[in-house]
Amino acid sequence: MTKRFSALALSAALAGGFFLTSVPAHAAASARHRAVSVKAASVTCNERQMRQQIADLKDKAARLKQLGEYDAARKALSNAAALQRKLDACIKAENDQTKPFPG
Fold this sequence. Notes:
Number of helices: 3
Shape: rod-shaped
Helix content: over 70%
Strand content: under 5%
């Protein structure tokens, strides 16, 4: 009888430990996913506007280069490159957000 009771107590403890450790992990994963989606939802990227800004900066850099303003042209190209990186990151974030398990 005591062997049966101790085996039952041990199996109950193991099952309880399993549920105790697995449920918070799932809850944390879903909470983390919600936080990411809320964060991603608050940041919106207007691709058309960003692409227009990049094109404008590249045109400005070309005009400045023709006028001999090489430092200002380099700065405009640098700004265009930074905006392009931001656009690429935004597009990547939107693509990853639609997948349930990115990777």
